[in-house]
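Give me a protein, keeping tokens residue-aligned:
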Amino acid sequence: MVENAVLGGRKVSIHCAGGVIADIRDGGAELPGVQRGAVDRLDGRGCLVAPGLINAHTHAAMTLFRGRADDLPLMEWLERHIWPYEAVMTEDEVYAGARLGILEMVRNGTTFINDMYWCPRGTARAAVEMGIRACIGEVFIDGPADANRRRRLEIERLLDELEGCSSRVSLSVDPHAVYTVSEDSLRWAGELAAGRGLILHIHVAETEVEGQRTARRSTVARRSRISVGSACSTNAPWRQIRCGCPTTMSPCWVRGGWYACTTR
């Protein structure tokens, strides 16, 4: 039970049972016997009661890279300092980094994360062990045709494997971005998400440079918007993430889904 907390401007006592809130009463109200005998009591004095926060776009395991050349432009940072290390990361390393990231988020009130990263088995294991709710998917970037076919099969097997791993964990299909994934792969991702009733999670543009790169591929970009948009249904909403605030993207990017934007 949480005592002496503030909810809506009034002091309350909150009784939890079986992992859910069972009762909320004014602080001075008489408590039922089951609440008077609560085993665990937390003093919420000086604290506000609020719903858990949702982190709509995470790469939790990237806590391992904190401070690594993070004063560089995005693409130089990714191509020279991040992607080479990610290419050799193990599932256990992703698990360790995800545990650290989840710990930090839980301490700050986050109870749900939407995570796109490599080796998602490690992230799923960390999420299950630490009790956070999570939507998890494996990011993919296009390569040679043969490699793309293998990756698609791997992702489908991964979704089969992780399905039902925990009531707190849901799954997503995660193409990296329009400028790193072909129109054909975006169409495949949209159909896969729609067919399985999953969220499609993709970057729109984290910096103005990314928006410019996408705009230079204007024909592909327009078609990709249409093909990704084909996943927009009541069963398969899609999620586009844009960090920073470039204004080059058409409103059609966010039609039918959710849009997460961090401000600077």
Summary: The two ends are 38 Å apart (CA to CA). Residues 218-255 have pLDDT under 50 and may be disordered.
